[in-house]
């Protein structure tokens, strides 16, 4: 511990230089992309078929595994054990759901904005409500994602955390404004490689210094950190097998398959098969990176199994433990702290750039373009979206002052996201899987979900602030801290107790991982009855392609037979190739209004 208590100016310089070296990479990638077509607003927000499968998959990995994953998942392992790892194999089920329910619907309806589906399936009012919840969700969680790199940097240097936060946001704003989705995709590829290499190097060196894999697992088992299959059915338990699997299916399916930042990547490849391949590559990458992050937490516990740095005051909270571990284990190796900082910066920049890009496009299309405030040309669209990106970035910098006061960041991110994630997951599933759901059921179901989940979360946060609800971490030891110059014993620290099993059940006490599940179920419980009470969906002009292929058997026979079929005649990744489609007159006009005139065969 001694060398971690004071960091020399030279030691600080190395991580600064290494981490800052990440910043020019996005800028270079951004400026090197030639465009053969005339620039337009879709160049910023859609990026269509020119992108290839593998870069899209890596971009998904990089943007979805944020700084929260890099920093907070190891902290979760250190504090609560390996139960969270179940999310890694669960991604197989999540990918199956997305590939065979959501992706076919988006491709069959030629949707690049996933929320356009809600207008086609239900009504414009449903779309506007859900896009509002998405914008609200992103504005709530994005400051946390981008604050993580600043948190890591401040732990290994004496630079003010808010100065770092401002620099990070500024760099991300710069390349997102200039490059659009192409810059976001390719910088995500570079950052994803940095992310994996950094985590891998730090873990390998940590294992070697502890004494090998056998020593790591022996200490972790002794500290009760390897429990994975906790089959407890108690919904108030923070993490069990069921929360980590079933609960995360509802959370991550919506987060990955139904957020605009992900959908615009998935539909940017030449065909549905390419999209499915990209998602399978993402699934493998997610498994590897998540397993690596979880193992990092186990290695951290093995390192400090007999002297907890949090208890002795070297680290203020668990989310700052990983930078401390890196400085302690590899701080004597020139450049290694900088490699770690590069990893966290890459994760934070990837997530922020992806969300800023999709957020700007969505706000412009749904809340600015419909109103004739000015002449909407390609140039004005680009300028407007760049201003939106700039304003959103400045907002993230300002919100860093509040994020700094948060407790466990992983729990906070999941909690905030769940306010709307369950409603979004529920309304898309209701539309794709239940043909008789109508706009009234969708609107009432999603609104009820947001209200009820917000009420549960508010009550839970109030209980936490009043010390009525707590999730105490697993025990840690300080018995060998005297070897490092700390005269402490276990009696010097208070003992925290979890809520008693025989205590009266309260909805506020359910695990935060279940919030999205509750929200999704509420959409169905309210949406289906309201749809029936208001006359169900009118099937006279209904299109079967708005229903997932797996659920089309429920449609009336005449709807399946008479449905308009969009048949692809020629679709390649060559932007110069003319794309020919078969349209009805009504579909042609609707497509032109949404996407602009294209070559058509009527």
UniProtKB/TrEMBL annotation:
Keywords, sorted A to Z: Cell membrane, Ion transport, Membrane, Sodium, Sodium transport, Transmembrane, Transmembrane helix, Transport
GO MF annotations, alphabetized: symporter activity
Biological process terms in GO annotation: sodium ion transport
Keyword DNA repair: no
Lineage top rank: taxon: Eukaryota
Subcellular location: Cell membrane
Record-linked InterPro entries: Na/Glc_symporter_sf, Na/solute_symporter, Sodium:Solute_Symporter_SSF
Family: Belongs to the sodium:solute symporter (SSF) (TC 2.A.21) family.
Protein's name according to its UniProt entry: Putative na+:iodide/myo-inositol/multivitamin symporter
Species the sequence originates in: Anopheles aquasalis (Malaria mosquito)
């Amino acid at each position: 511990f001694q060398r971690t208590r004071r960091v020399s100016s030279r030691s600080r310089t190395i991580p600064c230089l290494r981490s800052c070296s990440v910043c020019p990479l996005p800028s270079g990638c951004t400026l090197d992309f030639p465009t053969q077509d005339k620039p337009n607003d879709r160049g910023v927000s859609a990026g269509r078929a020119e992108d290839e499968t593998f870069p899209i998959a890596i971009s998904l990995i990089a943007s979805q595994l944020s700084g929260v994953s890099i920093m907070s998942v190891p902290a979760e392992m250190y504090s609560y054990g390996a139960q969270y790892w179940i999310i890694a194999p669960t991604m197989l089920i999540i990918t199956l759901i997305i590939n065979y329910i959501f992706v076919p619907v988006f491709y069959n309806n030629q949707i690049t904005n996933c929320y356009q589906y809600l207008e086609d399936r239900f009504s414009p009012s449903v779309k506007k409500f859900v896009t509002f919840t998405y914008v609200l969700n992103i504005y709530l969680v994005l400051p946390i994602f981008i604050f993580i790199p600043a948190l890591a940097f401040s732990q290994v240097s004496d630079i003010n955390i808010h100065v770092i936060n401002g620099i990070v946001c500024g760099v991300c704003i710069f390349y997102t404004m200039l490059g659009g989705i192409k810059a976001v995709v390719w910088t995500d590829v570079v950052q994803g490689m940095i992310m994996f290499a950094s985590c891998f190097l730090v873990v390998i060196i940590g294992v070697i210094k502890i004494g090998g894999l056998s020593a790591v697992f022996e200490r972790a088992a002794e500290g009760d950190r390897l429990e994975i299959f906790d089959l407890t059915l108690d919904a108030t338990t923070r993490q069990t097998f069921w929360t980590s699997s079933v609960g995360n299916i509802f959370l991550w399916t919506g987060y990955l398959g139904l957020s605009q930042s992900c959908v615009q990547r998935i539909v940017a490849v030449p065909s549905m098969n390419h999209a499915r391949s990209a998602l399978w590559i993402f699934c493998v990458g997610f498994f590897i990176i998540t397993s690596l992050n979880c193992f990092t937490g186990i290695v951290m516990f093995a390192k400090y199994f007999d002297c907890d740095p949090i208890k002795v005051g070297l680290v203020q909270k668990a989310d700052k433990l990983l930078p401390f571990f890196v400085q302690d284990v590899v701080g004597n190796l020139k450049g290694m702290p900088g490699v770690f900082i590069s990893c966290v910066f890459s994760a934070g920049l990837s997530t922020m750039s992806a969300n800023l890009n999709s957020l700007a496009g969505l706000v412009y299309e749904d809340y600015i373009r419909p109103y004739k405030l000015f002449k909407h040309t390609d140039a004005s669209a680009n300028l407007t979206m760049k201003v939106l990106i700039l304003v959103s970035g400045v907002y993230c910098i300002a919100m860093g002052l509040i994020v700094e006061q948060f407790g466990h960041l992983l729990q906070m991110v999941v909690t905030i996201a769940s306010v709307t994630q369950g409603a979004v997951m529920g309304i898309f599933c209701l539309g794709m899987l239940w043909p008789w759901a109508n706009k009234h059921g969708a609107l009432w179901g999603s609104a009820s979900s947001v209200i009820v989940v917000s009420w549960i979360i508010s009550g839970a946060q109030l209980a936490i602030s009043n010390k009525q609800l707590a999730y105490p971490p697993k025990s840690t030891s300080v018995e060998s801290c005297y070897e490092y110059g700390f005269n402490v014993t276990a009696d010097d620290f208070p003992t925290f107790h979890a809520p008693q099993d025989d205590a009266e059940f309260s909805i506020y006490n359910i695990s935060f991982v279940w919030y999205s599940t509750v929200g999704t179920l509420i959409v169905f419980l309210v949406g289906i009855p309201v749809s029936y009470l208001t006359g169900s969906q009118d099937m006279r002009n209904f299109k079967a392609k708005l229903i997932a292929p797996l659920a089309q058997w429920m449609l009336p026979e005449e709807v399946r037979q008479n449905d308009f079929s969009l048949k692809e005649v020629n679709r390649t990744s060559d932007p110069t190739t003319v794309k020919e489609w078969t349209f009805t007159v009504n579909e042609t006009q609707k497509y032109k209004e949404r996407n602009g005139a294209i070559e058509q065969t009527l």
